[in-house]
Amino acid sequence: MQELNTIQLIAVWALPVLFAVTLHEVAHGWVARMYGDQTAAVLGRLSLNPIRHVDPVGTILVPLLMMLTAGFMFGWAKPVPVVMRNLRHPRQDMAKVAIAGPAANLVMAVFWGMLLKLGLFLGGQGLWEGLIYMSVAGIAINLILMILNLFPVPPLDGSRVLNGLLPESAARVVDRLEPYGLMIVVVLLVTGVLGGILLPIMRSVSAVLLGMLGINLQIF
Questions:
Q1: 20 touches 138 (CB < 8 A)
Q2: In total, how many domains does the chain have?
Q3: Minimal CA–CA distance to 57: which of 65, 49, 47?
Q4: Has 25 been annotated as catalytic?
Q5: How far apart are alpha carbons 62 and 64 in whole angstroms?
């Protein structure tokens, strides 16, 4: 996408980012309601209206800065509140709530992949060229969110999934990392360790996804 100007980049990335972070959070709230916690529903956070989920920093500022400096977008929405004690089986159900967000991103990545296939089939000119760029952005942001969130460090979703699988004593050890989790993620990101771990995974997953759709394209 290096050939696109700033306005074109914003137009290409805006909808995929909004949909990716919004549906990720709604999926958490929807599954939480299934298992007994009505908090997100009561607060109106099951809405597909992005305005209800927008975080000024994570949904607007950070993605914009990353797009202009790094050439791709990453962002987050306001976390959907989940009261763990309201769940019928707190640890196990919380793991299901946590996995729902990355699962939603996987579904969206497949959806954008199908749109990419359509754009390429229709010739990739004019309007269809815009669809191709947006579809690539949609696949990229959703795979980034899915794979990063599955990293098993609090407060990422992967740590909640891990807690649901571990014996309670081991889960308590993971919980003790919670106050330092965001700092750990930032340090791993800044030092390049996180990228070194996740980038090969993102390349492999995107290759499998695009290969299943018969698309010969490298996104990462």
A1: yes
A2: 1
A3: 65
A4: yes
A5: 5
**Which percentage of the chain shows pLDDT scores above 70?**
95
Pick from 182, 179, 112: which is nearest to 144 by CA? Answer: 112
Decide if 144 contacts 199 (C-beta within 8 A).
no
Residue 220 lies in a domain: no
Average pLDDT, the chain: 87
Q: Are 162 and 133 in contact (CB under 8 A)?
A: no
Q: Residues 38-85: pLDDT tens digits?
A: 999 999 889 888 888 888 877 777 777 776 676 555 667 788 999 999
CB 104 within 8 A of CB 25: no
Are 1 and 12 within 8 A, CB to CB? yes
CB 186 within 8 A of CB 180: no
**Is residue 217 a part of any domain in this protein?**
no
Boundaries of domain holding 113 = 6-212
Q: Which of 3, 25, 129, 178 is catalytic?
A: 25
Task: For residue 79, give the nearest of 107, 98, 106 by alpha carbon.
Answer: 98
Q: Is the dihedral of CA 98, 101, 102, 103 positive or negative?
A: positive
pLDDT band at 16 (very low <50, low <70, confident <90, very high): very high
pTM for the whole structure: 0.89
